[in-house]
């Protein structure tokens, strides 16, 4: 009698493995079902503030413009160079609270004194059309998404070290000392939750980190060696 099937996907890239990741259930199905008609998929990208999620995501979208990026909504002020409707939808706190109360947000969270959320309708519309939708969101919001969309693929971006993360935050020179310390304190909690995600990528080298994400998302079936382990009882 077979009680469980595990898929151990070894990426045939010079014999390397993507973090020796044991892929079960939802990720294995998404990667191996290449012959099925296109269907929508939700991809959740998470990591501490300053880890480089935005840079990785912009590079990924340039290479794969068929991906649909969900634009988040926030109550924080725009940083230098950020544009409303491209980087975020910048709204007032009353506007944000009204949308949350009307269930117009897929998820939302308050972080460092500001609110962030994902508008519901654009995401659901794109998934119905068969698009792959990418959300770049905080840990609290990711957990909400996983409850509503258990088949979502979770990718967590890790810093090389906490010291490196602190240097990146300070290099931005966009926040007060108090805000930086809050972000660093929260980052410790977020890093400890990395195992809740399907894929964990250390962003020490941009090109290598991007390559790992691409392998997880786009490696076709002929390039994967699927080892199916059966456990008898």
What does this structure look like?
The chain is of the alpha/beta class and 233 residues long. The protein has one domain: P-loop containing nucleotide triphosphate hydrolases (Rossmann fold). 37% of the residues lie in helices and 25% in strands. The protein is built from 8 helices and 11 strands. Strands 3-8-2-9-10 form a 5-stranded parallel sheet, with helices on both faces. A hairpin with a 2-residue loop joins strand 6 and strand 7. The longest helix is centred in the C-terminal third of the chain and has 16 residues, at 177-192. It is globular, with a radius of gyration of 19 Å. The model is unreliable at 1-34 and 221-233 (pLDDT under 50).
Outline the secondary-structure elements.
Blueprint: E1 2-11, H1 26-32, E2 41-46, H2 53-63, E3 68-69, E4 73-74, E5 89-90, H3 93-101, E6 105-111, E7 114-119, H4 120-128, E8 132-136, H5 139-148, E9 153-158, H6 162-172, H7 177-192, E10 199-202, H8 206-218, E11 224-232
Parallel strand pairs: 2-8, 2-9, 3-8, 4-5, 9-10
Antiparallel strand pairs: 1-11, 4-7, 6-7
